[in-house]
Design brief:
The protein has about 325 residues and is an alpha/beta fold. It has two domains: about 110 residues, Rossmann fold (3-Layer(aba) Sandwich), CATH 3.40.50; about 150 residues, 2-Layer Sandwich (Dihydrodipicolinate Reductase, domain 2). Helices cover about 30% and strands about 25% of the residues. The strands form two sheets. Strands 14-13-12-11-7-10-9-8-15 form a nine-stranded mixed beta sheet. Strands 3-2-1-4-5-6 form a six-stranded parallel beta sheet, with helices on both faces. Strand 12 and strand 13 form a beta hairpin. The radius of gyration is 20 Å and the shape is globular. It binds NADP nicotinamide-adenine-dinucleotide phosphate (NAP).
Length: about 325
């Protein structure tokens, strides 16, 4: 339910995702008013813009919420400054570059009595909740995640993804892990990983992971950034009561080969992954709550800790 007057929010890091999703989702919602942007090189027409977060926090005490959309490696400093200034914080995925950053952010938010939200947009994809419901009472035998996409198509000009803290293929892969950790009833643990690093880069271009599960024999994930053909974002599960295929990054669901109707979200500006994230943020602020689930990030960290690393041919954009 929307409150009577919209909350003022600042967007920090005006890049692809801020323009594609955050700005339109805020504009469509009665909960929010975009009051300022913070970005070193970019701005949004008609919105007051700042080049650094400290100046914005000082100049605009009326802004209650700060939404951080820049790449993860630089997010912690902005989040800490916002919390210290008593603002609620919304974090793009992944919520930070490390686990310890995220734990500290949560502790600082608790101390300051502000809300913090580690968002996972893929969990809001149309059929994720239905997949979770379907799996809830089934015995899982096998599960495989396949996330194969073309890095040149989805990340043109983004050098940060290849730098330390840029996540490489785990930038999309963590979306798959956010769905996995949401829909599988018993938590998985990382068992092993094989990570392929281009010889000239600091982050992996491909990864295959295996997981332990209380009763499934085979739970695995394959992430590959070299797919130039059909882009594949699927989670496939064999259970005691049939086969589930969640495809299109969570947009489509089929049980035993029969596709379930997808909720039509095309005409509703308050529906969709990002509008739902902003509705949830509004609820967290209203109720004084924190939502800081870092399970997907923990699996990525575990893969980096346990993974066997192999060098592959250099990558040039
Ligand atoms: P982007 O377009 O490359 O960058 C976003 C903006 O962040 C940049 O325009 C830059 O603005 C600012 N920025 C970059 N490095 C910074 C730094 N070191 N310190 C401060 N600000 C910095 O990236 P993006 O694709 O929007 O992705 C940003 C985040 O959103 C990532 O965590 C990504 O995983 C997530 N995400 C992206 C997508 C997508 O489709 N692209 C989808 C879902 C989630 P200024 O130079 O003006 O400061």
């Amino acid at each position: 339910m929307a409150q009577s007057s919209p909350m003022k929010i600042a967007l920090v890091g005006i890049g692809k995702i801020a323009r594609d999703q955050h700005v339109p989702s805020i504009a469509a919602s009665p909960d929010w008013q975009l009051a300022a942007t913070v970005s070193r090189n970019h701005s949004i027409n008609g919105t007051e813009s700042f080049r650094d977060v400290e100046t914005m926090l000082e100049a605009r005490p009326d802004i209650e919420v700060v939404s951080l959309c820049m790449p993860p490696a630089s997010r912690f400093a902005y989040a800490i400054a916002s919390i210290a200034a008593g603002r609620h914080v919304m974090l793009e995925k992944p919520p930070g570059a490390t686990i310890s950053e995220c734990l500290q952010l949560k502790a600082k938010a608790q101390e300051a009595r502000v809300s913090i939200f580690a968002t996972w947009h893929s969990r809001q994809a149309p059929q994720v909740a239905a997949a979770k419901m379907w799996l809830k009472d089934k015995r899982l035998h096998r599960l495989s995640v396949t996330w194969k996409e073309d890095v040149r198509r989805w990340h043109p000009g983004q050098d940060w993804i290849w730098e330390p803290g840029g996540f490489g293929v785990f930038d999309p892969g963590i979306n798959a892990l956010s769905i996995l950790t949401e829909i599988v009833p018993d938590p998985v643990q990382l068992k092993g990983a094989l990570l392929q690093f281009p010889a000239n880069r600091q982050t992996p271009i491909a990864a295959s992971l295996t997981f332990r599960h209380p009763h499934a024999d085979d739970v695995c994930a394959l992430f590959d950034w070299g797919e130039e053909g059909d882009q594949i974002w699927t989670i496939e599960a064999e259970t005691s009561e049939g086969h589930m295929l969640l495809s299109g990054g969570g947009a489509e669901l089929a049980i035993d080969g029969n596709k379930l109707p997808t909720p039509d979200q095309s005409g509703d500006p308050l529906n969709g992954e990002y509008p739902r994230l902003y509705a949830r943020m509004a609820e967290l602020v209203r109720t004084g709550a924190i939502d800081m689930d870092i399970a997907p990030l923990a699996l990525v960290a575990d893969a980096m800790l346990l993974g066997r690393r192999i060098a592959v041919e250099p990558f040039y954009a």
